[in-house]
Write a structure and sequence with these properties.
The chain is mostly helical. It is built from 17 helices and three strands. The protein has three domains: 149 residues, 2-Layer Sandwich (Potassium Channel Kv1.1, Chain A), CATH 3.30.710; 138 residues; 100 residues, no CATH class. A three-stranded mixed β-sheet has the order 2-1-3. Helix 3 runs parallel beside helix 5 and helix 7 packs parallel to helix 9. It comes from Cinchona calisaya.
Length: 431
């Protein structure tokens, strides 16, 4: 056992003897060999060499030379201080923050100090963490064994039943119609629901089983029924409408819900019912928008939802009969053309308004979806659409050049192509 010590280090600990936790200052004098059982030597690789008298650590009865890095010196000293001020397990004034407590815990684990370990664990388990502190805890704590596991309780995975309950609860709120002052809370709930179903670096919290799909579809269906009722009511009571009405506000709120809801349906791969409903109501939606003449931001939201539906149909994710596909092009192509022209004429000042932004990628995606959808139609229907496009003043959007080129090629080679099959299926009867 080493019996010498460095007085400069020991003297820095003597102030602790004045602590009210100590029943007798004279009985626990720092540096007094009569009241200390071990002399601790702290040594760094850089040559720093300090000696401190300590007790209460099983490790110290076997090893009296502790090697540490310079940055850990304070943690070692603080841990050793606790040997002298420990009373009734109350050391809450010694932690000085999360990082210091982690440092003391590391020392306590290394030295085998069960009381200090317990106190550190209780402190770290109870207090809030900053994001950087949480990352440090995740990096350090798991390697310390089962004795510190309570610290990680808030980070443990939740069982499926608990996740499902909170998902359904959030879904009900996210598809409700709360007072306007709660819109931010509703938006937050919608964002978290989408995040729960998103597959990124981690797997989704929930898989798209039939039960979840059913609940989501029912919630979106309820919103759509309200939306449909609003649209039909507006068309029936058109004489009584004014420019600013409750109906217009509701229209915009429903469209926001649809824009979000479609994303959820897409993640669950169950957009078909919504797409069918939107197709059926498309002409009425156009009429209502024309009648009410809502703000540009509402018209853009209509187009945003429509773009999602057209993409699903145009790329074959939702299968519709020819007449329905043709109807979608005839109804929405002129609307998209007018909206693009309107947005191109908005002043620079207005363009700085984020509410009027329509992502350039969405314009392009909508254009490509129109092209794909048109090319699924019979050649005669394609010819009608392309004729109207070529005669339109705003021919630049949507640019149907690709559809025109494909139609020209198909039409030119059609007789020859089908004649090759004539002997087999008799499909050469083309004038």
């Amino acid at each position: 056992m080493v019996l010498s010590y460095v007085q400069s280090v020991a003297s820095c600990l003597e102030c602790l003897m004045d602590s009210p936790h100590n029943e007798s200052n004279s009985a626990h004098k720092i540096g007094d060999r009569l009241t200390s059982d071990v002399v601790v030597r702290l040594r760094t690789e850089e040559g720093r060499d300090d000696w401190i008298i300590g007790q209460h650590a099983r490790f110290l009865t076997h090893a009296t030379v502790l090697r540490y890095i310079e940055s850990d010196f304070d943690y070692h000293v603080n841990a050793l201080r606790l040997f002298y001020i420990w009373r009734d397990g109350s050391v809450s004034d010694m932690w000085n923050g999360i990082r210091n407590a982690i440092g003391i815990l590391r020392v306590a684990v290394k030295l085998g100090c069960p009381q200090i370990i317990t106190a550190c664990v209780e402190y770290l388990e109870a207090v809030p963490w900053e994001e950087s502190e949480e990352e440090e805890i995740l990096k350090i704590i798991p390697s310390m064994g089962s004795q510190v596991e309570p610290i990680l309780a808030r980070l443990q995975p939740v069982n499926h039943t608990a996740v499902l309950k909170i998902f359904l609860s959030a879904l009900q709120f996210a598809t409700s119609s709360p007072p306007s002052h709660m819109n931010d809370l509703k938006t937050s709930a919608q964002e978290q629901l989408e995040y729960m179903l998103t597959e990124d670096d981690d797997a989704p919290l929930l898989s798209g089983d039939e039960g979840i799909k059913f609940e989501v579809q029912q919630c979106i269906k309820r919103i759509f029924m309200k939306f449909k009722y609003l649209v039909e009511s507006v068309l029936c009571d058109r004489q009584e409408l004014v420019s600013e009405t409750r109906e217009m506000q509701l229209l915009h709120l429903y469209l926001i819900d649809f824009s979000w809801g479609y994303q959820i349906l897409a993640k669950l791969e169950c957009v078909k019912d919504f797409a069918y409903s939107w197709v059926e109501l498309s002409e009425s939606i156009i009429n209502v928008v024309s009648l009410m003449n809502p703000m540009v931001v509402t018209k853009l939201k209509v187009l945003e939802v429509t773009a999602k539906v057209i993409e699903a149909i145009g790329y074959g994710n939702v299968v519709l009969p020819t007449t329905k596909r043709f109807h979608m092009v005839k109804v929405w192509l002129p609307f998209a053309r007018v909206m693009k022209s309107l947005m191109d004429t908005i002043s620079v000042d207005d363009e700085n308004d984020l509410t009027l932004k329509f992502d350039g990628e969405l314009w392009q995606s909508l254009e490509l979806a129109f092209v794909s959808l048109i090319l699924t139609l019979p050649s005669g229907d394609q010819a009608e659409i392309l004729t109207q496009w070529l005669a339109c003043e705003h021919i630049q959007y949507p640019d149907l050049t690709e559809a025109f080129e494909v139609w020209c090629y198909r039409s030119k080679v059609a007789k020859r192509r089908l004649a090759l099959l004539g002997g087999k299926n008799g499909t050469t009867n083309i004038e």
